[in-house]
Amino acid sequence: MHVDLRDLNADVWDRVQGPDGVAYFQQSSRLKRSQVDELIAAGTPLVVSWFGGGELDWFDERDALAAWHKRRRLFTAHPTASTSKHMQWTGGVFRTQDLERSIIVLTGHC
């Protein structure tokens, strides 16, 4: 499933509200590529955030795997100033307040 979350999360930066209304709060940042691989393989939903492109999208199941593979080669735990025209992606884990559910949030940087 792919859902555009922009309307649910207008002007909110400290949390992400999922399509089911559940709020997720940042718990970690600077995930490694291998950690994202493991979380996606375990079925963790993926949220892709790129402010410059107006993107805030929720992906789960097969769509999460496809969205991750599309961005995986440009993923880094330590973004650098880049003179290239390629984006860099970083990621963190957001969890519900009860810590029972998690999502991965990828953030695009130019």
Question: Would you summarize the structure shown here?
Answer:
18% of the residues lie in helices and 35% in strands. By secondary structure, the protein is α+β, with helices and mostly antiparallel strands. It has a domain of 55 residues.
Task: Produce the secondary structure layout.
Elements: E1 2-4, E2 15-17, E3 23-28, H1 33-41, E4 46-50, E5 55-59, H2 61-71, E6 88-95, E7 102-109
Parallel strand pairs: 4-7
Antiparallel strand pairs: 1-5, 2-3, 3-6, 4-5, 6-7
Give a written overview of the molecule:
The protein is an alpha+beta fold and 110 residues long. The chain is 18% helix and 35% strand. It is built from two helices and seven strands. A seven-stranded mixed sheet has the order 1-5-4-7-6-3-2, covered by helices on one side. The longest helix has 11 residues, at 61-71. The termini are far apart.
What is the share of helical residues? 10-25%
Order of helices and strands: EEEHEEHEE
Largest sheet: 7 strands, mixed
* Strand residues, percent: 25-35%
Strand order of the largest sheet: 1-5-4-7-6-3-2
Radius of gyration from CA coordinates: 13 Å
Low-confidence stretches: none
pLDDT averaged over residues: 86
Q: How many β strands by DSSP?
A: 7
Secondary structure class reads alpha+beta
Shape: globular
Distance between the termini: 27 Å
Number of helices: 2
